[in-house]
Amino acid sequence: MASALLYMVLIRVISGSLELTVAGLMYKTHDLEKALALNSMLALVGPCVLILTTGLGVAGLGDKISFPKIICIFSGVLLILLSLKMK
């Protein structure tokens, strides 16, 4: 297995474990304000994980894909992140 793929999987497993842990904490606190604060912290983690795993994937394929395709991939990620910020 390629090292980039292994790192991508590991990052996603850690991210998913963090999500489940925070969900448990939200349930355990029984407080809407604390749950909202925890949820806000997770909102910062998601985009970082997306950018990091995409970067690792592109770096792993760097010699197999062209530069315009790399630009398109990162443009797509940027559009996803921008659309999350729009109202």
Automatic annotation (TrEMBL):
<keyword id="KW-1133">Transmembrane helix</keyword>
<keyword id="KW-0812">Transmembrane</keyword>
<protein>
    <submittedName>
        <fullName>Uncharacterized protein DUF2619</fullName>
    </submittedName>
</protein>
<dbReference type="Pfam" id="PF10942">
    <property type="entry name" value="DUF2619"/>
</dbReference>
<feature type="transmembrane region" description="Helical">
    <location>
        <begin position="6"/>
        <end position="27"/>
    </location>
</feature>
<dbReference type="InterPro" id="IPR020390">
    <property type="entry name" value="Uncharacterised_YqhV"/>
</dbReference>
<keyword id="KW-0472">Membrane</keyword>
<feature type="transmembrane region" description="Helical">
    <location>
        <begin position="65"/>
        <end position="84"/>
    </location>
</feature>
<feature type="transmembrane region" description="Helical">
    <location>
        <begin position="36"/>
        <end position="59"/>
    </location>
</feature>
